[in-house]
């Protein structure tokens, strides 16, 4: 079987992690870099990502995560937090980075900057938050697939109280909101769901060729 398909068949939403197994620093660094390289709209990456290993913090997060054991048993918890609002500085900081990385004058990028600002700055607060939240899921998908390549288990989770996460992690004062969490680690031999056949729609149901 092609390794791309094999790895995606192997992965599943892990329900029970082995709390004695930890992701190595080397593998974690690979996952972080794969996530950093994720695409995003305009390349702006309007979010911040928290990598949590502190057991005390994980213990606090579990009760506000529907008491799911993955939160306390996984090696790491990755929390994606989207910006709840932004101004021109989001685009300006990005263009400064482009200028420095590609050795292009900032003046030469002004037209692109003005274009981005014309599309984004007039959005309502709700629309801005909705847009930034969507961007976190692109990064989430990249992280999950990179983890599958390394045979590291994951469980994407929306089942938590975002406002409580925001309080525990101090996100609100940073203009951030917890959008999705991803426990990573290694499946427990006791997790029966690892043996279940993967259920997906057939190609005929899911795809239309035009």
TrEMBL record:
Coiled-coil spans in chain: none
Keywords of this entry: Flavoprotein, FMN, NADP, Oxidoreductase
KW NADP (keyword) present: yes
Superkingdom per UniProt: Bacteria
Cofactor needs: FMN
Nitroreductase domain: residues covered: 10-186
Family statement drawn from the similarity comment of this UniProt entry: Belongs to the nitroreductase family.
UniProt name for this protein: NAD(P)H-dependent oxidoreductase
Organism: Croceitalea vernalis
């Amino acid at each position: 079987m092609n390794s791309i398909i094999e790895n995606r068949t192997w992965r599943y939403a892990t329900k029970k992690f082995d709390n004695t197994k930890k992701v190595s620093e080397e593998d974690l660094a690979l996952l972080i870099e794969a996530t950093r390289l994720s695409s995003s709209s305009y390349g702006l990456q309007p979010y911040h990502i928290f990598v949590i290993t502190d057991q005390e913090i994980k213990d606090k997060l579990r009760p506000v995560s529907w008491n799911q054991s993955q939160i306390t048993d996984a090696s790491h918890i990755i929390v994606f937090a989207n910006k709840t609002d932004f101004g021109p500085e989001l685009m300006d900081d990005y263009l400064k980075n482009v200028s420095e990385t590609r050795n292009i004058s900032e003046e030469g990028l002004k037209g692109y900057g003005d274009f981005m600002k014309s599309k984004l700055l007039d959005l309502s607060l709700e629309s801005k938050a909705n847009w930034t939240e969507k961007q976190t899921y692109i990064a989430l998908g990249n992280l999950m697939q990179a983890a599958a390549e390394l045979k590291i288990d994951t469980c994407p989770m929306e089942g938590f109280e975002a406002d409580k996460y925001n309080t525990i992690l101090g996100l609100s004062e940073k203009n951030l909101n917890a959008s999705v969490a991803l426990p990573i680690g290694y499946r427990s031999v006791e997790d029966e769901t690892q043996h279940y056949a993967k259920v997906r729609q057939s190609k005929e149901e899911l795809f239309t060729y035009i």
